[in-house]
Design the sequence.
């Protein structure tokens, strides 16, 4: 395993650090505290970051993106999420979805969908799977007709008419294109009855329901998507009918690494604030870091962050180099890293004392942001059940 970073990797890491320090840090807390989630989308930051290449960093190079590998992505995400996890996730979600389009779509589809995304600095992508009655069942499938997503795409001449609803969908209130999982056969379970479609957001019959009002990660938009007789051309079906689950398995490896890196960055951001506070805050006539209870807490935080970083780097390296990759490692590393972030951010809140829970201080936002990670891309419980099945 080789972790000597190239000049290019270090340059990208520095670019992300500088942009997030100079542009995102000064405004992130103010966006976070806006009451209406519609007002929390930092469009100016998205556009500025996009001009630096951050919105398309993980998009394959042949389609005009940065083509960054998973290890480079992890390095960049750590720097971004350290400042604000929501802006970071807004960028990296587009790396993930555009890479899926590049991996799964045919040439004609890629030519139709990727250039408009790459060229427009405000063009964002969504990936819609979860429904009000189908959450974990899409990640740990009960492969029977009654379970899993119900949103249905019915053949109609050369196209498909889509009806149903998706929930908790990242960027769905602001995205222009959606990779959609819809049922195309109700008589079988989801391993055979789910298909993937590319649906432009301006398709008649596609609308938003609620814009979700989350406790954390507030700069990362989440919304419901409603499909009412939305007619999608047959050319927007990805691959063959009934292949969605197999397609996801083929491209899933990046998802956990993306989340782990966010957990790492979030924990590091909280730790750095806590360390600085502990050096400056005087109680008992000395900086509180000189009290052993606080010093040990900080040492534990540093230890956990370092363990998580080793996991992230190892998983990112393995995904590119081990054939086949060992999916168990990324699954339980996602669990470890996200729960580590919750532990570390909670300790940061404690080190800040009363100021830890005040919105004017920096600590409480990290704790709220970390809590959101536990529920994303399959809950931690579901990830552990999947690991257990592979022991
Ligand atoms: C910030 C955020 C962003 C998201 N982005 C997207 C997105 O872009 N696209 C998308 O499609 N979805 C997205 N999701 C949805 C996410 O994938 C789901 O919330 C997640 O899969 C859990 O589904 P659920 O919320 O319906 O919980 P449920 O499935 O109802 O689970 C509730 C609880 O029961 C447990 N549980 C469920 N089934 C089992 C079982 N079989 N065995 C044991 N325990 C079980 C779960 O672990 C959990 O603790 C997002 C969610 C969040 C919070």
Sequence:
């Amino acid at each position: 395993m080789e972790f000597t970073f190239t000049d290019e990797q270090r340059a990208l890491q520095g670019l992300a650090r500088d942009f997030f320090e100079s542009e995102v840090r000064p405004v992130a807390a103010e966006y976070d505290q806006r009451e209406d989630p519609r007002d929390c989308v930092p469009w100016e930051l998205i556009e500025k970051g996009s001009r630096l290449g951050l919105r398309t960093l993980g998009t394959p190079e042949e389609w005009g993106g940065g083509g960054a590998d998973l290890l480079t992505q992890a390095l960049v995400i750590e720097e971004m999420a350290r400042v604000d996890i929501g802006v970071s996730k807004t960028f990296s979600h587009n790396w993930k979805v555009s890479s899926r389009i590049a991996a799964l779509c045919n040439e004609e589809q890629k030519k139709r969908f990727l250039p408009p995304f790459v060229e427009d600095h405000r063009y964002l992508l969504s990936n819609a799977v979860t429904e009000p009655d189908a959450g974990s069942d899409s990640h740990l499938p009960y492969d029977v007709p009654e379970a899993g997503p119900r949103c249905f795409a019915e053949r109609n001449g050369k196209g498909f008419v889509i009806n149903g609803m998706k929930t908790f969908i990242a960027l769905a209130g602001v995205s222009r294109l959606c990779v959609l999982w819809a049922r195309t056969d109700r008589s079988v379970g989801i391993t055979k009855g789910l298909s993937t479609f590319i649906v432009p957001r301006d398709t008649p019959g596609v609308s938003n329901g609620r814009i979700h009002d989350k406790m954390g990660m507030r700069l990362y938009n989440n919304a419901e998507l409603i499909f009412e007789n939305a007619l999608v051309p047959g050319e927007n079906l990805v691959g063959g009918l009934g292949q969605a689950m197999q397609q996801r398995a083929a491209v899933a490896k990046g998802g956990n690494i993306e989340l782990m890196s966010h957990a790492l960055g979030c924990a590091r951001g909280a730790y750095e604030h806590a360390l600085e506070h502990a050096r400056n805050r005087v109680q008992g006539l000395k900086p509180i870091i000189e009290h052993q209870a606080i010093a040990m807490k900080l040492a534990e935080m540093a230890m956990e962050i370092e363990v998580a970083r080793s996991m992230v780097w190892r998983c990112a390296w393995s995904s590119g180099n081990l054939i086949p990759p060992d999916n168990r490692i990324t699954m339980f590393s996602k669990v470890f890293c996200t729960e580590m972030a919750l532990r570390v951010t909670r300790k940061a809140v404690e080190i800040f004392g009363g100021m830890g829970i005040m919105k004017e201080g920096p600590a409480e936002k990290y704790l709220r942001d970390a809590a959101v990670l536990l529920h994303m891309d399959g809950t931690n419980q579901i990830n552990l059940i999947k690991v257990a099945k592979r022991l």
About this structure: The longest strand covers residues 159-170. The chain is about 50% helix and 15% strand.
